[in-house]
Amino acid sequence: VEEESVSVFPNPVSSIITIKEIHSSSIEIYDVVGRLIDIHQSGGGEEHLDMTKYTNGVYFIKIIEGEKTKTFKILKY
Fold this sequence. Notes:
It is a single chain. By secondary structure, the chain is mostly beta strands. The chain is 0% helix and 61% strand. The strands form 2 sheets. A 4-stranded antiparallel sheet has the order 4-3-6-7, with no helix packed on it. A hairpin with a 2-residue loop joins β6 and β7. The radius of gyration is 11 Å and the shape is globular. The mean pLDDT is 92.
């Protein structure tokens, strides 16, 4: 995943987080201790993830495109 091609906002987030990326990818959400808590498939373009179902805290969003990965640290409040 090219860092310039992906943006994740807003951060911190209270409800909906937007992920803008170029290619189709798998989006994994991990809690602060590294447990996988959700997986989304993206066809490319822009994704909107509802974070309201998660408790407040730190999460990691891992975007996987083939062999490339990029991880973003997100604060949910």
